[in-house]
């Protein structure tokens, strides 16, 4: 099969396409023909060896995909050849085939095409848990989404609006905010040009109820300072590369809550939460919710797709199409 490979750590252009042996499913594993794979920021970090988990080279990057089951190893009960599935893995998705444990797969909802299915699972599940499972968001709340034009950000804006929240989208340019406005964000704040805390306070009156932060760095503290008393700040990631340090007196003074989302390990601590999220998201997909996909690349240009995220150029999701998916 053809697969994107990273044989040394570095910037996205170290990734090239190789011919490698087809994987074979072991017990409990499923072999999937990939139709589309979505790019997530951790893929950029993994190639650069800057992710929390270091992956030995050479490896095939890519952590999220949609495709068709080709075969299954012994003891696999939940899927069979021909099933349309979506899945996630630490690596391996930027390839024609992937082998994963059956638990890594969920059925592809009928309404999603391959590109949307590949782009959906990681960001929308993360956004749902950030907003609802940990953020405690309710209809009518003011929700601030940092990095709102990115993958997690666009999903958070979309889900929050559909669940009845009022969304303040924050991004680095008016052009990126215009893209997010199509998802229903009520107000946009250009956080590199405007005073983030002052602007959120001005818009909300008493402050926001929830902040969703996939960005970190210098944006986190002013957003937290703009929470209303009793509000919740949810830390999701650090696309800036900088983990913020928050003065704890801010939490004390306004009875704030800071929560963190970690999708990979969430089910271990909250066993009921994944099923609740999947059910809620399936209902929203039936109502027409689709991820915002702005760029589709071929397998030969995985480096270009990773560069788009690395350079802050992507709006919403970037997808690699395989097997005639687009
Ligand atoms: N906790 C979890 O389980 C979980 C799950 C998924 C993702 N994440 C994390 O969430 C973060 C965002 O992921 P994503 O898929 O949404 O990424 P993304 O699509 O690349 O979006 C990140 C956004 O951050 C903003 N940004 C600000 N400073 C940046 C910088 N120096 N470099 C790059 N982007 C910068 C960019 O928007 P502007 O230019 O408009 O500011 C960009 O759109 C990542 O750190 C990822 O690892 C965590």
Automatic annotation (TrEMBL):
Span of domain Enoyl reductase (ER): 10-320
Cited InterPro entries: ADH-like_C, ADH-like_N, ER, GroES-like_sf, NAD(P)-bd_dom_sf, Zn-ADH-like_protein
Tree of life domain: Bacteria
Enzyme Commission number(s): 1.-.-.-
Molecular-function annotations in GO: oxidoreductase activity
Top-rank EC class of the record's enzyme: oxidoreductase
Ranges in coiled-coil conformation: none
UniProt entry keywords in alphabetical sequence: Oxidoreductase
PANTHER family assigned: QUINONE OXIDOREDUCTASE-LIKE PROTEIN 2 (PTHR43677:SF4), SHORT-CHAIN DEHYDROGENASE/REDUCTASE (PTHR43677)
Protein name as catalogued: NADPH:quinone oxidoreductase family protein
Organism of derivation: Rhodococcus artemisiae
């Amino acid at each position: 099969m053809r697969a994107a490979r990273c044989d040394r750590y570095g910037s996205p252009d170290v990734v090239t396409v190789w011919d490698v042996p087809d994987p074979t499913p072991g017990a409990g594993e499923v072999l999937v023909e990939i139709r589309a794979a979505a790019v997530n920021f951790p893929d950029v970090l993994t190639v650069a060896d800057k992710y929390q988990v270091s992956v030995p080279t050479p490896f095939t990057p890519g952590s999220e995909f949609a495709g068709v089951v080709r075969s299954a190893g012994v003891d696999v009960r939940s899927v069979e050849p021909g099933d349309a599935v979506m899945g996630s893995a630490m690596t391996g998705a930027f390839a024609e085939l992937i082998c994963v444990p059956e638990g890594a797969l969920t059925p592809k909802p009928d309404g999603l095409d391959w590109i949307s299915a590949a782009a959906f699972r990681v960001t929308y599940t993360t956004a749902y848990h950030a907003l609802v499972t940990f953020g405690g968001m309710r209809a009518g709340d003011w929700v601030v989404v940092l990095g709102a034009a990115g993958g997690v950000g666009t999903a958070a804006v979309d889900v929050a609006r559909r669940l009845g929240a009022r969304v303040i989208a924050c991004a680095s340019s008016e052009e990126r905010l215009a893209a997010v406005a199509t998802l229903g964000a009520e107000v946009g704040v250009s956080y590199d040009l405007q005073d983030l805390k002052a602007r959120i306070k001005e818009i909300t009156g008493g402050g926001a109820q929830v902040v969703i932060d996939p960005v970190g760095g210098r944006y986190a503290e002013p957003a937290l300072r703009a929470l209303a008393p009793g509000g919740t700040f949810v830390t999701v990631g650090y696309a800036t590369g900088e983990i913020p340090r928050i003065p704890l007196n801010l939490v004390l003074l306004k009875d704030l809550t800071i929560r963190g989302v970690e999708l990979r390990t969430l089910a271990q601590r909250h066993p009921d939460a994944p099923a609740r999220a999947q059910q809620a998201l399936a209902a929203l997909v039936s109502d027409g919710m689709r991820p915002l996909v702005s760029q589709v690349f071929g397998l030969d240009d995985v480096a270009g797709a990773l560069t788009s995220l690395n350079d802050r150029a992507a709006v919403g999701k970037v997808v690699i199409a395989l097997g005639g998916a687009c």
